[in-house]
Design brief:
The protein is 55% helix and 9% strand. It contains 6 helices and 3 strands.
Length: 158
């Protein structure tokens, strides 16, 4: 999943959201596709309702909340490291590839003010940062280009 997708209401039930809408006089619009068995998400939802207890649902929500908290911790640490090493080809070449990919995706998003690139695009960008010649301009995708110098890279929207 792309980290640019935010689902701030995921921990609320439909009933809670509906009650909130009523209380605040908000218009409630029901998505007709949610009732259709043509969509796999609805078939899965219906089959899970019959086998998952409320206790399991609560535990899953707790795990999801923990996951979100960990993600925020990772984002804070990533930002701290990226700010110190932004644009450094040497730094990204010397660290573990999985860590480099996380930091690079965050740095590209920060430099361009956009969403993080997909993992595949970030992998290609990291390879380019490690191997591209001086002056190269590397297309990352979604209108983002890396400009390569002898020691640094700079992400720009083109």
């Amino acid at each position: 999943a792309r980290t640019g997708i935010r689902r701030p209401l995921i921990s609320f039930t439909k009933t809670q959201l509906y009650d909130y809408a009523l209380q605040h006089r908000l218009e409630w619009v029901e998505d007709a596709t949610n009732a259709s068995d043509l969509y796999q998400r609805n078939r899965v939802r219906k089959s899970l309702k019959s086998v998952i207890s409320q206790r399991v649902v609560v535990r899953l929500l707790q795990l999801r909340a923990r996951q979100l908290a960990l993600r925020k911790d990772i984002e804070r640490e990533t930002e701290r490291i990226t700010l110190r090493n932004s644009g450094s080809r040497y730094f990204l070449s010397q660290i573990d590839d999985d860590v480099a990919l996380e930091l690079l995706a965050s740095d590209i998003a920060r430099q361009t003010g956009g969403l993080r690139p997909t993992r595949l695009r970030t992998q290609r960008a990291l390879l380019a940062i490690k191997t591209a010649r001086l002056g190269a301009k590397i297309d990352v995708g979604d209108g983002v280009q890396l400009e390569i110098t002898s020691r640094t890279y700079c992400a720009k929207v083109v």
